[in-house]
Each structure stands twice: as structure tokens, then as C-alpha cells.
Amino acid sequence: MNLLQRAELYNQAFPNYPPLVATDRWLYGVWVLGNNYKSRSNYYGEYPPTYLKRVTALFPDKQPILHLFSGTVPKALGDTFDINPALEPTYVGRATELSTVLPRTYGVIYADPPYSAQDAEHYGVPLVNKKKVLSECYRALDVGGYLVWLDQSLPMFRKVEFSLVGTIGIVRSTNHRVRMVFIFQRQKKPARGVIEDDGR
Questions:
Q1: Is residue 200 part of a domain?
Q2: What DSSP string runs through 24-86?
Q3: Which domain range does residue 97 map to?
Q4: Within 10 Å of residue 194's Cβ, how many Cβ atoms?
């Protein structure tokens, strides 16, 4: 399934909202999500309202699913991975060691890491090395699989591991931080002799 087809699936699922736009190589848009006054979770940093419904509408064919930095994501929505065992994730570990913990690869990984040192302090965890985590996600994904990374800044990545194929702005409401969904697609294994470079 190409990016045009993925955007069409999303637009059919959410016909009353501004559509996503896509070409055969790029997908982009903006989601205005508002507040969720019905949320029963007090977990710091939970996904914005309707975020998971929207993003999973883009990847209905990609299985299995892994939620990285999963927090309180229900296991019914896929496998979960978190450093905090009290949250009872499917897998407990450091994201920088992801591929050594997981017993299999995944079709899609949804990641919502701590964005800053202040966020990491709220969680009671160290700030992660995002470049290392992306390389671990590369190892944990099927060839052609997707990494959907929610953040306030574009993480460094290796172009021989990932192609950046989409960006979606996330706006909640007034006085909320603005975020971006970065959509990466896993490349094939680099050929011998290829020099890995950063995505700068």
C-alpha cells in the first residue's frame, strides 16, 4: 500500500476533518485534536485525544503493532514496551536496547518519547538518546515497516536505515505545545561498503 492509498484510507475514516495530502513519496497534514474532557487517565504524557484512532487509520495492514514508550496504552491495541514495570507493559526495558529484548520484528512502531529533560523528569526516567533508539527501531521493524514518531523535534536518523516519508502537525488547543508526527519507513539492509550518514 502506497502513501496515496494510506491518505485515502484516513480521509475516508475522518471525512469531516481537513484531509491528509499525499504523493507517491510524501504525506502531510495538520490535525487539530482539542481537549479530551472524558479522559480517565491522569498519566503524564498520554497520547492526545483521538491520536491513536487517526494514526492507526493510516496503517491498518501493518501487523504486529508495538507501542514504544507505551505508558498506559491498553495491550489490546498491540504489544507495549516501557522502562517502567509498574505500568505492566508486554516488554520491560530500555529503548536503547529494544532489539535485544524483543523476540520478533514488527510491521509498525508507534513511539511517543519524553520530548525534553523536563518531561523525562516527570516520568522519573533518563532522557533517551533518540538517535540510538531510532537505530534500535530499525532493527525491530520488518523491511518496509513504519516508525511513527511523535515529538517536538525531528530526531537524528540514518538515511540508510530510514526514509522520512511524512509529517503531520498536532495542535490541541490554546496554551498546549505543538507537536509533529514524523513518519519513517524502514529501508532494506544497507549493502556492504555503504557508509551510514545522519539524516541532516
A1: no
A2: SS-EEEEEE----TT-----TTPPPTTHHHHHHTT-TT--SEEEET-TT--GGGSEEEES-GG
A3: 3-172
A4: 9
Answer yes or no: is 148 within a domain: yes
In this structure, what C-alpha cell is assigned to residue 32?
A: 487539530
- Identify whether 51 is part of a domain: yes
pLDDT of the chain, 200 residues: tens digit per residue? 999 999 999 999 999 999 999 999 999 999 988 765 454 545 455 678 789 999 999 999 999 999 998 877 888 899 999 998 988 999 999 999 999 999 999 999 999 987 655 665 666 666 789 999 999 999 999 999 999 999 999 999 999 999 999 999 999 776 667 889 999 999 986 544 433 444 43
Cβ atoms of 69 and 114 within 8 Å: the answer is yes
Do residues 102 and 140 touch, judged by C-beta distance below 8 A? Answer: yes
Total domains in the fold of the chain: 1
